[in-house]
Fold:
Amino acid sequence: MTQQSRPVYLRLRDLVAAAIMDGRYREGEMLPSVRALAAEQGANPLTVAKAYQQFQADGLIEVQRGVGMYVAAGAADRLRSAERSRFLDEEWPELKARMRRLGLDAAQLLADA
Structure:
């Protein structure tokens, strides 16, 4: 499934997850409000709320009613671990097969980087 064919709430979730893993939103820091993120991304606030609900269900954010949503302790590490597993299980086999077909060597690619 290409990035563009994924539901918008999952793309928004990926965007916020990347920001957490990159340290733009650190543990204990407040996330942008639903309305602010919706305006920034040109998305429907209900779609942003759905993405945030998934984070809450996964225990990656904590909600303080009337105050905001905060990145939970350990969220970056848990996201990184889940993304690593997904990459190795879903993306790497395809990438490895394509590299083999193209005659690309992983060690050489890393050396050239």
Q: What stands out?
A: The CA atoms of residues 26 and 37 lie 17 Å apart.
